[in-house]
Structures are given as C-alpha cells and as structure tokens.
Amino acid sequence: MSTSVWPPIAPGALHKEVQATLARELQWLLAALQETLQSLKAGLEECAELLAPKEPGSTLVLSSLRSENLKGFITRVGARIVKGDVHLRLPSLPAPKGQNSYKLSISTSAAAPTLVLDQVTTTRTLINACLDVVDATRWTGDRTNANFISSQLRLLHENIQEAKAALKGWTDDQKPWNEEPVDPAAFQPPLPNNVSFHLSISEAAVLLNVRTLEAAYPNTGTNTPLSIASGIGTPSYSGFSIRERLANALGGSKQAFHDEAHEVFHYKGQEVRVRDKVRVESQDPSLMAAMAKLAALERNIALSRRALDVVMGKEADEG
After folding, report:
1. Would 6 be classed as within a structural domain?
2. What are the distances in angstroms from CA 70 to CA 25, 61, 103, 163, 276?
3. Total domain count for the chain?
4. 52 Cβ neighbours under 8 A, 6+ residues apart
5. Which residues form a coiled coil (predicted)?
6. Are 292 and 282 contacting, i.e. CB atoms less than 8 angstroms apart?
7. How many angstroms separate the CA atoms of 212 and 22, rounded?
8. Of 29, 31, 37, which is closest to residue 133 (Cα–Cα)?
C-alpha cells in the first residue's frame, strides 16, 4: 500500500516539509527525554539506597549444600563485612581439642582490617557517576543539542551496564582468589596460613569460597602440607603435618575431589595446591533488588537511545 499527497508537492518543498517534521519530532523527543532522565535519576537513587551502608545491615546465612562442611553467617553493611562466624568441618583442617568444628570469626575490633566486597564498591561508584551524568545533562549541558544528549545517554548506558555486570560477577577487572588474599588480621584469632577465605558477588548473591592449601613441589612430584602455625612457605614436620603424612603413607587420607584439585596456584609468593574447597552462595535481597532495578534502567535507556538514533537518522548502536 502506498500513500501520496494531492495536489502533488514539488520535490524541493516536500524535502523541506520532511526536514521540518523531523525537526519537530526531534524537539519533542528531546523534551520528553528530560522526563526520562528524571525517572532514571529516581531509579538510580533507589539503587544507591539499596547499596548504602546502613545499620544494622544484611545478615546472611551460610550453609554448604547437603553437608556439614560449612555453617555460619556474615553481616554486610554496604560494601563491608562487619561481623561473621564460620564453622568448618574439613578433613585437612582439624578442629581444636574439645570442639567438633574449626571456627573462623571476623574481628569486630576497630583496629582490625576490614573485609570489603569490591564489586559492591564498584557498583556504588558507577551509580554515583550515573547520577552526576544525569544532573549534568539536565542542568548544565544544552538540552536542545541532540548530539550532546545522545553522547550522555550512551555514557549512562555504559555505566549502568558496568554496574549491573559488577553485581552479576566476574568482570574483567576482578582478581582471582589467589591474587587477592585477605588480611589474616581481619579475623580473631587470625586466619590460619593454610586457609584462603574469599568473598565475592555472583548473580547478586554473596559467594564464599574457603580453601585449605598445601605447598606444591612439582619438581619432586610431592606435596607438603602447610602448617597452621607456620608460614605458608615453611613446611612443618610436626603435629598435624606428621599425622597427615602418616595417613597418606597408610592410604587413609581421602583424595582431593573438586574442580581445582589438580591445579597449582601462585599464592603469597608460593606455589600451592588446593587440598579442600567448599563453596557457598547466600542470596542477598538488597543486591538482588538493586540488580533487577539496574536491568530495568538498562532496558529503558536502551529504548531511549534507539528512539533518538532513529529520529537523528543514525543506526542504533549494538548493545
């Protein structure tokens, strides 16, 4: 089906009318986008509120699936882990005499190092950057300049995508566990030298990986367990280490069975293997709500960018 104008309009006049119509559409869209920016700001402020460091924080239960390997809790306030107790039952981490589990307690001392979820910090930083972009777009820049508005929307879109990706987990700038060890002094008593305690965010859930480590000597084909009391680079041949070596000789020690069992990692200046590993996820309602809101904001701004590109005669950028 085709349409035509009667009486016919000269090509030059028709071109002028088309351009005038596009100009009016662009003017209307730029005005409408101011309301969109206001709505985006409200959504971003809600996300910032969900991630703000407010007491008493979020207390999350930690429990290994179908086992007693790990039980406990942590309390998150903003990006900081301010409290937590974790009870471990691992073959390579014997419990103290008279106890049935090995307890790790996060120190509540003001002088103790703080455990920080860097992904939450990154998300908050990006959200604050988005709020600055919205304010600059609405109050500082030329709101009638389509190219300016388009570039600002692109910047907003990229920041929101990065913020959502940080809560989703495993961004390009996220370091692996062996390159980012926690300070043992963040625990009371201090974290044993042969234990790695790694917290991160995955799919808006707090992910805890606890690993027990042993020194790796690939040249000789043997592994010497680390001592809890000694440094990671100083093998111990007394106490637990002797018992473990005797158990290995008698065939009584269970073979490590996890996804990192046959890998060697560089950790605190030494080559180590992972003896035991336990992985626990705990759903965080605030993080889940923030990621859902960011996903909705991402869709809204993508639609706004696409509409503006169409009126400006540009092809919509992928993503």
Report:
1. no
2. 60, 11, 10, 30, 12
3. 1
4. 78, 124
5. 23-50
6. no
7. 66
8. 37
Angle, helices 285-312/146-168, rounded to nearest 10 degrees: 150
- CA neighbours closer than 13 Å in the CB half-sphere of residue 74: 31
Mean pLDDT over 52-56 rounds to 95
For residue 280, list its beta bridge partners.
208
CA nearest 28: which of 302, 308, 314?
A: 308
pLDDT digits (tens, 9 = 90+) for 233-244: 444 433 345 555
In a domain, 198, yes or no: yes
Query: pLDDT tens digit string along 72-125?
Result: 999 999 999 999 999 999 999 999 999 999 999 999 999 999 999 999 999 999
Residue 129 lies in a domain: yes
Q: What is the DSSP letter of 178?
A: G
Which amino acid does the sequence have at 66? R
- Taking alpha carbons only, the member of 177, 210, 187 closest to residue 88 is 210
Q: How confident is the model at residue 203 (pLDDT cuts 50, 70, 90)?
A: very high
Cis geometry, peptide bond prior to residue 113 (ω within 30 degrees of 0):
no
Question: Would 319 be classed as within a structural domain?
Answer: no
Q: CA-CA distance, 296 to 279, in Å (whole number)?
A: 30
Residues in the chain: 319
**Domain of 154, in residue numbers:** 21-49+117-218+264-314
63-67, 141-145, 235-239, 251-255: the lowest-pLDDT one: 235-239
